[in-house]
Amino acid sequence: MSSSSKVSRLCGNYGSENFNEMRQKYKEMISTLPNRMPYHPIYKLYQYEGFWYYSSFLEAALCMQQNFNPQPSDIFLCTAPKSGTTWLKALTFSIITRHDFHDDFTNSPLVNKGVHACIPYLEHDFLNKPKFVDRVGLSLLATHLPYTILPKSISLNNCKIIYIYREPKDAFVSSWHFTHKIEAKNLEVPLITLDQALKWFCQGKSVFGPYWDHVLGYWKASVEKPDRVFFFKYEDLKEDTLGYVKKLAEFMDKPFSKEEQERGVPQEIVARCNFENLSNLEVNKSGMLLSERTLQISNSVFYRKGEVGDWKNYLTDDMAKLIDDITHDKFQSSGLTFPSSSACN
User: Fold this and answer.
1) Are strands 140-143 and 75-78 parallel, antiparallel or unpaired?
2) 154 assigned to some structural domain
3) pTM for the complete prediction?
4) Cβ(164)–Cβ(40) below 8 Å
5) Which of 151, 252, 269, 280 has the smallest set of CB atoms within 10 Å of its CB?
6) CATH number of the structural domain spanning residue 101
């Protein structure tokens, strides 16, 4: 694909003047929406059609509705925050680029740039880096956007979607830790308490929340289009990483050949992308990301524990029950289930 065609799939048929007018229109509209008044204005969220967003992310999502032209070969990695995003990116990137870096993994961008620099992040890069696809020349694109606000062009072009979801209590605790680390580095304000974070999470007022509605949107899409939406649990990936690496490769139309399987290529990808290996890469110990809100984000904050059931170390029984009750109410008619707090290991 040429550079010009890559840009056209992002910018559609709009000139820069019309695009800027569109952005201004949405900025003004967003300012009128209900908002979550936080302890610091940099974390202000706005509610739109049932979900909560940073203003820049919502602006990008709305602009993309009219202004984003994906290729049918594009694959979208979709997740709620802290639900396995980093691991999913590493695995899928390794699967797709395995022929390029099999002989010398030290040259892989995963090693030199870090996971999140390898795959464009739609709601950030669409507005801030118009030629972001040129950075990697791959078909992988990532987003935290709910299914209902994804550009309709993704469905119309029959693009594939991969969605990983996580036990809500673990997703919540992981998100709280992630936010704490960013706050401590960037903001001279009291850190958000666990109680306050839990209140917002259960009210659905977390970024890209409500968490349960985010999951259900993609679950319903996977039921309607099982050949286009690959939907699976973080916990299942932990239990059978090798099996899911093979399933992901098949879904992405990049199946492992018999010869590759005999050489142990799938096992090699699992080993390269495990938590210990990724977290110990120098780029993930000392590298930095800069967010669209000019925050300094260390790559290391994306690697905490990655464990199943770590919520038990932070939530009281009452806190766990509160999340479990919402999960039961939300998921009971969907076919999605998680162990109760008392049964979770």
Assistant:
1) parallel
2) yes
3) 0.87
4) no
5) 280
6) 3.40.50.300
Looking at residues 52-76, what average pLDDT do you find? 91
Q: How many domains does the chain have?
A: 1
Contact 87, 273 (CB under 8 A): yes
99 is annotated as an active-site residue: no
Indicate whether 157 belongs to any domain. yes
Element (H, E) at 243: helix 241-251
Quick check: is 151 in a domain?
A: yes
Host domain of residue 110: 70-332
Residue 60 maps to a domain: no
The Cα 251–Cα 245 span in angstroms is 10
pLDDT tens-place string over residues 172-181: 998 888 776 6
Yes or no: say if 157 and 70 are a contact pair by the CB < 8 Å rule: yes
Contact between 267 and 242 under an 8 Å Cβ cutoff? The reply is yes
d(CA 326, CA 272): 37
Which entry of 116, 124, 144, 214 is annotated as an active-site residue? Answer: 144
- Nearest 5°: phi and psi at 99? -75, -25
Beta pairing, strands 288-290 & 229-233: unpaired
Count CA atoms within 13 Å of residue 315 on its CB side: 28
The whole-number pLDDT of residue 233 equals 95
- Rounded Cα distance, 20 and 117, in Å: 26
Count of residues in the chain: 345
168 vs 246: CA distance, rounded Å: 26
Helix axes 317-331, 168-186, angle to 10 degrees: 120
Token pair recorded at residue 120: 């464009």
Place of tokens 């680029």: 97
Task: Report how far residue 152's alpha carbon sits from residue 133's, in angstroms, rounded to the nearest whole number.
Answer: 19
Query: What SS3 class is residue 268?
Result: helix
pLDDT one-digit tens code per residue, 230-249: 999 999 999 999 999 999 99
CB 110 within 8 A of CB 94: yes
Burial of 201 (0-12, 13-18, 19+ CB in 10 A): buried
